[in-house]
Every structure is written in structure tokens, then in C-alpha cells.
Amino acid sequence: MGEVQELQLQIRVGEANKPNPPDQQVNITPQSTVPKLRNLNWWLRIGIYTVCVIVGQSAATLLGGLYYDKGGNSKWMATFVQIAGFPILLPLFFISTIKNPTTNGSSVTNQSSPSVITLIYVMLGLLVAADCMLFSVGLQCLPVSTFSLICATQLAFNAFFSYFLNSQKFTPFIVNSLVLLTMSSALLVSQTDSKNKSETGKRKYILGFLCTVGGSAGYALVLTLTQFSFQKVIKREDFRAILHMTVHPSLVATCAIVLGLFASGEWKHLNKERKDFELGELSYVMTLAWIAVGWQVYSIGATCLIVEVSSLFCNAISTFAFPIVPIFAAIIFHENLNGVKIVSMLLAIWGFVSYNYQHYLDSLKLKSESENVNQVSQAS
Question: Which residue in 337, 356, 341 sits closest to 149, CA to CA?
């Protein structure tokens, strides 16, 4: 087996050193023949994106629960603020232009036509709008802690979609992670607090559960399609492409939600809702504003994780944030943190650690393969 691997490495090095035909302008870079090392800078970027995902999602979810808990009742407004904060990302276009004044011509010519890319933006935007509405209904009908833990099911859905669309490979550690995270949320399917039953009713709880699971499945599909679009259609992974993938679907989703807000007639009650908010009118506005900011911080971090690693990894990070929310929900909203929820959180943390251990093993494997390629290259 060692001789076969060495022969394969020699062939790859020989292909990299082979001259290109004059009619083909292809830039051979070390990344095309040597596995991409996950060095300190890579881990630092992943750490920053991870913080954005965890902090943004946790803060926005808790503030969404605060909105409903203190008198907010508009599902369309709760949906609107999940998306409408995208204009705060627009200055980043200017910053990215200064840092990269010119664009690599080969990366542009490899892209699909603008009409295809526009269709992807529209499709993803409409799907995001539908998911946000489902999440708004789920958060309105369920306690924040229960809602956040049920959302962990999106990792299992993401694994299913990634297997068919992105050829995701499954290792024992990844399978173990998916099983644990799915079990973490499955514990909550038949378990509800007596307080929750008296407040929302069994029918409302079932509606919230179904909407949350449906939103999780839809959002897992969004993440998978985003990765597929970067790899097969956009074929660029620079920060400007990430901004486009974040802003344009958000614009489409915002337009669709605004139409729904006016068509439903809920906009007529927003003024009264603002005045009757228990914490005051200023707190009402600030709560909605910070929900919007939190979701945009999450969105940019999630898209970067999809580009740097995969949609499944992004979802694993997102799932790790879900067990954090019940702890703060118990403090802020005085929700009951019973034994089932504690076990659910422990399973989710265990699943997260298992998934990241697989990435640690992948990093060691890439480093070993890179060293072998360098040795063969120097010998040749």
C-alpha cells in the first residue's frame, strides 16, 4: 500500500509540473496539488466565525423570546427582524473593495451566467423567508428553551441533504455526533412542562413543535444549497462573494416578508403593540433592532463557515449554541430547567465535541499528506 500511495503522489506532482497548452490560461497553485493545511490562521478565522454564529444566534433567540414574553404578538414583525438587518453589512462591500481593488479574471469567467446566479438568490431568499416564518411561529408557541433544543434537529436534516447534494462523507465520529444531537432534541418531543400545557395548550404546543421542525429542515436545506451554489455555480470563495450570498437572498426575503406583513393586516396593530410593550416603547424598538443585528452577525459567520469548511460543520456549530440558550432562558424567563433538558444539553455538547474531533483527525491527515507530497517533489 505504501508503494501505491507514493506512486499516486509522484503522478500528482508530475501533473502539476506539466506545462499547460498555450490556449488554456490556468493558474496552477500549490492548493491544486497539495491538500490545504489547516494552520493557525485558518483555526483563528474559524474561531471568529464560530463566535459570531454562537453569540449572534443565542442573543437573537433570547431577544425573540423576550419580544413575545413582554407583549409582542406579531409573527410577521418577528419574521421581518430576522432578515431586515442586512443593510448593516453593506459597508463591508466598500472595505472588501479597498483590500481587493482588482478581481481575478479566471475566477470571474468560471462563474455561471448572471441570470442563473440571480435565480439562486431569489430561490434562497424565498426559502429563507418561509423558514423565518416557521421559526417565528415555533418561538411564539414554545418556551425558548424547548424551541432552541428542538432546533438541533436541523443538523440531522443537514446531514441528509449534504449526503445527496454535496457528497458529504460520513465517518464514525460524524455519525456518532448526528445520533447524539438528534437524540438531544428527540427527548423533548413528548416532554412538556405542566406550566407550558396550561399556558399554550396541547394544540398550540404541537403547532409550535411542527413549525420548529419544519423550519429546521428548511434551513438545513438552505445551508446545503448555499454550499452547493458556491462549489458548482459561483465558484468563488472570497469575502465579496460571501457578502453577495448573504445580502441578496436577504433582500429577496425582506421584500417577501414585507408583502406578507401588509397583506395579513398585522401592520395596523404594530403601533398599539409598541405602546403596550411592558418594557416601554424605546425597549420595544431596541429589542427588535438588536434581534436584527444578532441574526446578521450569525448570518455572516454561518456563510463564512460554509465556505471555509462545509454546511454540515456550520450546522454543528449552530447546534452547539442551542443548549446554551436554555441556561439563559432559565435565568431570564424563569423557565423550568428540568432533568430532561439537562440531559438534552449534555448530549448536544457531546455530539459537538465528537464532530470537532473528526475535524482534528482530518487536519492531522492533511498535514501528513502534504508532507509526503513535499518529500516526493524534492526527490523528483
Answer: 341
